[in-house]
Each structure stands twice: as structure tokens, then as C-alpha cells.
């Protein structure tokens, strides 16, 4: 399945994703680094840059979901790439002129976050129209493997480049990656019809909430959505806690800290390549339930990290187990989400999912930091590890038919049909 030819047009879409992912990998953490080393920002300012920018971006993206839904998706992707290139390019220009400011970094962070959500919504909808239904899992697995390889390779190379060429070099690389991504999307040929609205009325509140409505009305998606909010939020909330524990409390060096996170990302190549075979053998819903439970059991292992090489190996082993599980689970989840979402709701559903995920990560990270300040990072890690053990209870219990997602919003008999399925 991993070697299946999905066609030239998918190849260009994949190239767009890859060049953007590797550019973001090179530029990972560039804005906080510039804030600290160039602008001498305080810890409060750095925290605000990490939290407020994406939060504002999510608010900006809220009306973009309905807008993207009824636009041709390729022009939207190109526009979002060009927008990200333009705003990222302002940083090296301002730096060269001596006018770089903290407010500018905040604005860039917010615009990048909003454009990322809009691009993801458009590309997800376009992918469903571009490849055959039985190729969706293969396509999503390729995206997943590309994502993890970019995380494994990008940050170490970016750190080395900053040390040699200065603080804004990775920002330039990230900006250029968006420009190259736009060129790749432009190379995709074929006509694309503009989606038609069912009503000529302007944007309504109901349009803004349609993505959440679909997620919460579909029993399978609802379970996976709530599970993902909890799991991703808790896993991401442990990253700053683990940084404090390793670098401050246990005395790990920066290169050891980087190795502890970069090396396990190679496990993403393993999980993503196994996804197709595992689903073919065991079925989609069984994989979601089993692997969804497996990815929740490893986090508690971070509590037992000790100083020295044994502690480093413990972190690598725990992160490797988590990443293999996630990289196998994520493409199956993405495929299930596309299969169970009607084509006239994909952009709004993906936007709602991304906005909610960002909010969950921000909230749980803030709570984790507060708990760590009152107790200790190790205690906060233990609480996160225990809470995530309850997440498998949210996974779906049944394999709901794909037609349920298409008809539930229009057929008044579907509620009774859903109840019958749940009883069965």
C-alpha cells in the first residue's frame, strides 16, 4: 500500500505538504528564540507569544471555515501559502533595518496560526476530492510520515544553522518553504468547480458552528473528537514540564534535551507505514480503539526519569512508544474523519477540530504550568499521566456506517437509525 501510485496531482499536493513541513521543522521555535536573543523579551512575553498568538489566530480562523467551505480549494491553499510567506518575510526585513519589535512577532504568530488552519481545512477537503476513497489512508499515511521525518530532521539542522548564520536564517527558510509550497499547488492541473451554497443568505452564526455541530452529532466522530482533545492536550502540556524537569532539575545539557525529542520522531516513519497493513488486517474501528488506548499508557513513564544516561534513555523510550502509537493512529483517524464527513462540511469540520485542539492544548498547558508551580514538574507530569489513562473510555464503541455522516443532518429518520445501531 505504501508504494501505491496515487497519481501526479497527489504528488504535487504531497510535495507542497513536504516542503512546508520541512520549512516549519527548520523554523521550529524560531519566534521565541528571536524574542529572547534579539529583543531580550521577558519570560512573560515569551509565554504570551506562545499562547496569545495562536489563540488570536484561532479566533481569526473561526469565520474562515465557512468561507473556505464554499471556495475553490486550490486558490485558497495558494493564498494561504503566499500570506504566510509575506508575513514571515517581514521578520528578516525588519531585523535588517533594525525595526523588529515584539508586537510584530505577535502579529506574525497570529496570522500564521490562522492561515495554517485555513490551509489545513482546504487541503483536507481537496484531498478527499483528489484521491479515491480506498486511497485516503495511503495518502494520510504519507503525510504523517513526512510530518514526523521533518520534526526529526528540521530542528537539529535549524539549530545548527542559527549558530552559524544568525537568528533569522530559519525564518527565511520557513518563509521560502511557503512560497515553494504555493508553486507546488499551482502545478496541480485539472478543473475544480466552486461549491454552491444551499442558500443565498450571508454568513450566519449557524455556519460558524456547523463544524462543531457535525462533530458532536455524529456518535463516532464525537467520541474521537473528545478523546483527541484530551490526549493531544495532555501530551503537549507535558512538553514544557519535561523541559523544566530535564534542563533545570536533572541537569541535562541542551544537546541531550534535543536528542531526547528528535531521535524518537524516527518512530513516526514506522507507525505511519504500518497503518495500511494494520487496518487491512484488523479493521479501522478496532485499530482506533486498540492503538488509541496504547498511546495513552506511556506518558506516565516520564515520571520515573532520573539523571544521566539512564534518564535520557527512559525519555527516548517513552517518547518513541508514544510517537509510534500516534503515527499509526493519526492517519487512520484522519481517514475516518474524512470518510464520515459530507463534502459540503469538510472545511468547517476540520477548522472546528483544529481550533478546538489548539484551545485544549493552551488550557491544559496553562493548568499544567500552574500545578507545577504549586507542586513540582514531576508531580504535574504524574497528574497528566494518570488523567490520560482515562482517555480510552472516550473512544467509539461501534463502527458507524459512512452513510450516517452524510444523511444524519437531512434525514429525520437517522436519529432512530443511530439508536438502532447503538443498541446493536
What key phrases describe this protein's structure?
424 residues; mainly alpha; 18 helices
How would you characterize the overall build of this protein?
It is a single chain. This protein is mostly helical and 424 residues long. 76% of the residues lie in helices and 0% in strands. The chain has 18 helices and no strands. The longest helix has 32 residues, at 308-339. The two termini are 33 Å apart.
The proportion of residues forming helix, as a percent range, comes to over 70%
The tally of helices reads: 18
Shape: globular
Secondary structure: number of strands: 0
| Helix/strand order | HHHHHHHHHHHHHHHHHH
The average pLDDT score comes to 85
Low-confidence stretches: 404-424
Bin the strand percentage: under 5%
End-to-end gap: 33 Å
Largest sheet: none
Q: Using only CA atoms, what is the Rg?
A: 21 Å
Secondary structure class reads mainly alpha
Give a quick precis of the structure.
This protein is mostly helical and 424 residues long.
Task: Present the secondary structure layout.
Elements: H1 8-26, H2 30-37, H3 43-61, H4 64-69, H5 73-97, H6 102-130, H7 136-165, H8 169-186, H9 205-217, H10 219-249, H11 254-262, H12 267-282, H13 284-294, H14 308-339, H15 346-374, H16 377-388, H17 402-407, H18 414-423
Amino acid at each position: 500500500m505504501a508504494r501505491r501510485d496515487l497519481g501526479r496531482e497527489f504528488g504535487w499536493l504531497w510535495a507542497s505538504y513536504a516542503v512546508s513541513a520541512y520549512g516549519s521543522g527548520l523554523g521550529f521555535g524560531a519566534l521565541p528564540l528571536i524574542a529572547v536573543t534579539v529583543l531580550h523579551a521577558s519570560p512573560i512575553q515569551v509565554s504570551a507569544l506562545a499562547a496569545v498568538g495562536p489563540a488570536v489566530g484561532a479566533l481569526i480562523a473561526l469565520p474562515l471555515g465557512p468561507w473556505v467551505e464554499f471556495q475553490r480549494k486550490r486558490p485558497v491553499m495558494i493564498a494561504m501559502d503566499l500570506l504566510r510567506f509575506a508575513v514571515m518575510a517581514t521578520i528578516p526585513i525588519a531585523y535588517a533595518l533594525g525595526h523588529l519589535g515584539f508586537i510584530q512577532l505577535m502579529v506574525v504568530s497570529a496570522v500564521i496560526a490562522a492561515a495554517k488552519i485555513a490551509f489545513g481545512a482546504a487541503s483536507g477537503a481537496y484531498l478527499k476530492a483528489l484521491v479515491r476513497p480506498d486511497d485516503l489512508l495511503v495518502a494520510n499515511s504519507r503525510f504523517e510520515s513526512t510530518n514526523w521525518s521533518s520534526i526529526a530532521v528540521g530542528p537539529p539542522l535549524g539549530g545548527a544553522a542559527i549558530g552559524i548564520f544568525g537568528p533569522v536564517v530559519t525564518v527565511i527558510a520557513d518563509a521560502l518553504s511557503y512560497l515553494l509550497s504555493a508553486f507546488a499547488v499551482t502545478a496541480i492541473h485539472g478543473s475544480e468547480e466552486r461549491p454552491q451554497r444551499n442558500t443565498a443568505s450571508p454568513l450566519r452564526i449557524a455556519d460558524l458552528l456547523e463544524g462543531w455541530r457535525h462533530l458532536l452529532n455524529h456518535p463516532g466522530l464525537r467520541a474521537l473528537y473528545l478523546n483527541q482533545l484530551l490526549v493531544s492536550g495532555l501530551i503537549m502540556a507535558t512538553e514544557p514540564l519535561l523541559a523544566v524537569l530535564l534542563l533545570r532539575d536533572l541537569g541535562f545539557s541542551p544537546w541531550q534535551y534535543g536528542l531526547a525529542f528528535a531521535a524518537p520522531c524516527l518512530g513516526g516513519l514506522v507507525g505511519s507505514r504500518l497503518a495500511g497493513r494494520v487496518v487491512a488486517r484488523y479493521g479501522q474501528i478496532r485499530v482506533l480503539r486498540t492503538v488509541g488506548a496504547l498511546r495513552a499508557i506511556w506518558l506516565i513513564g516520564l515520571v520515573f526519569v532520573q539523571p544521566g544516561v539512564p534518564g535520557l534513555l527512559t525519555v527516548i523510550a517513552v517518547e518513541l512508544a508514544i510517537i509510534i502509537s500516534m503515527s499509526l493512529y493519526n492517519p487512520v483517524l484522519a481517514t475516518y474523519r474524512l470518510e464520515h464527513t459530507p463534502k459540503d462540511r469538510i472545511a468547517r469540520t476540520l477548522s472546528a477540530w483544529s481550533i478546538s485542539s489548539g484551545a485544549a492544548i493552551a488550557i491544559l498547558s496553562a493548568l499544567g504550568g500552574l500545578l507545577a508551580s504549586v507542586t513540582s514538574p514531576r508531580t504535574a507530569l504524574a497528574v497528566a499521566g494518570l488523567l490520560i489513562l482515562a482517555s480510552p473510555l472516550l473512544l467509539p464503541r461501534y463502527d458507524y456506517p459512512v452513510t450516517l455522516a452524510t444523511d444524519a443532518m437531512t434525514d429525520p429518520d437517522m436519529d432512530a437509525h443511530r439508536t438502532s445501531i447503538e443498541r446493536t
